[in-house]
Amino acid sequence: MDAIEAILTRTSQGKLAEPAPDQDALQRAFACALRAPDHRVLRPWRYLVLRGAALAKLGEVFVAASRASNPALDEQEAERLRRMPLRAPLIVVAITVHKYDPKVPNEELLLSTGAAVQNLMLALHAQGYASMWRTGPLAHDEQVKDALGLADNETLSGFIYVGTPSTEPRKVSPLPVHDYAKDWEG
Ligand SMILES: Cc1cc2nc3c(=O)[nH]c(=O)nc-3n(C[C@H](O)[C@H](O)[C@H](O)COP(=O)(O)O)c2cc1C
């Protein structure tokens, strides 16, 4: 699959099954993530890979964090939260590291992570896997960030659910380019 085809055919997949990418495919995808554009070469990102028991542990972290902010959380909701990380055989936690450089505004570090995650997702897609980028309130919860070992200068930029698509990829209609990209002539 060439680069243009990979970009145009990638879609997010909410239902992801085994197998997760093997070690070679995952290393290749990370190698692509590490080629993200990066102002002043700060390397403002790092990743955690969660599989198997670690996914179940993340579910417990989600429940504990949600109970801390809402002690009335009922068991049905707790079970939904507990099962959330089990929607894929592997999760990549994408972390932005807010390194200081006087020439690099903070938002550029987040933009670099966005580019890196897109590289990762495209590389997975090109190798026959699928993924979905998720965040939500739990990505910004201090208890969740602590449990995953994030430092004060780090942002949890995404839970990237990764696996093999278990449904047909969604058909996407291309957007009209001229609505979004226009010439500017001063
Ligand atoms: C930073 C970021 C966070 C996202 N968080 C969520 C999320 O928590 N839940 C969700 O359903 N979609 C989330 N999305 C959107 C999906 O990952 C996906 O991009 C969207 O459903 C469009 O599908 P497509 O990638 O196939 O075009 C997020 C996307 C981005 C870029």
Brief descriptors of the model:
186 residues; alpha+beta; NADH Oxidase; 5-stranded antiparallel β-sheet; 18% strand; binds flavin mononucleotide
Short description:
40% of the residues lie in helices and 18% in strands. It contains seven helices and five strands. 27% of the residues are buried.
Structural description of this entry:
The protein has 186 residues and is α+β, with helices and mostly antiparallel strands. The chain has one domain (14-167): NADH Oxidase. The chain has helices at residues 3-9, 23-33, 53-69, 75-83, 106-126, 142-147, 177-180; strands spanning 16-17, 45-51, 90-97, 130-134, 154-165. Helix 2 (23-33) packs antiparallel against helix 5 (106-126) and helix 3 (53-69) runs antiparallel to helix 4. The longest helix is centred in the middle third of the chain and has 21 residues, at 106-126. The radius of gyration is 18 Å and the shape is globular. The N and C termini lie far apart (39 Å). The model has no long low-confidence stretch (mean pLDDT 96). Bound molecules: flavin mononucleotide. The site of flavin mononucleotide has 8 residues, from strand 4.
